[in-house]
Amino acid sequence: MINNNSLPQDPYILLSTINMKLRNQFKDIYKLCQYYNLDINILYKQLKSIGYVYDPHLNQFK
């Protein structure tokens, strides 16, 4: 579970929020994780649990 009060806890809402932030604010997942102080492995695991993986070429979870 993501331990950041500024990000949603529900994995589907988190997916939408992360993809929006990647599209509009951050050029890659590493910058986003650094900004929000997130463990990238936890983020990957949480979104993979609902069937999504990060595509670095598209800079989004698909």
What do you see in this structure?
By secondary structure, the protein is mainly alpha-helical. The chain contains 3 helices and 2 strands; from the N terminus they run αααββ. The longest helix is centred in the N-terminal third of the chain and has 14 residues. It has one domain. Helices cover 50% and strands 6% of the residues. Strands 1-2 form a two-stranded antiparallel ribbon.
Report, as a whole number of angstroms, the end-to-end distance: 19 Å
Largest sheet: 2 strands, antiparallel
Mean model confidence by pLDDT? 93
Domain count: 1
| Count of helical regions | 3
| Beta-strand content | 5-15%
Q: Which series of helices and strands comes N to C?
A: HHHEE
In the sheet with the most strands, the strands line up as 1-2
Q: Given the helix and strand composition, which structural class is it?
A: mainly alpha
Helix fraction bin:
40-55%
Number of β-strand runs:
2
Contiguous uncertain segments of 5+ residues: none
What's the shape?
Answer: globular
Q: Tell me the Rg in angstroms.
A: 10 Å
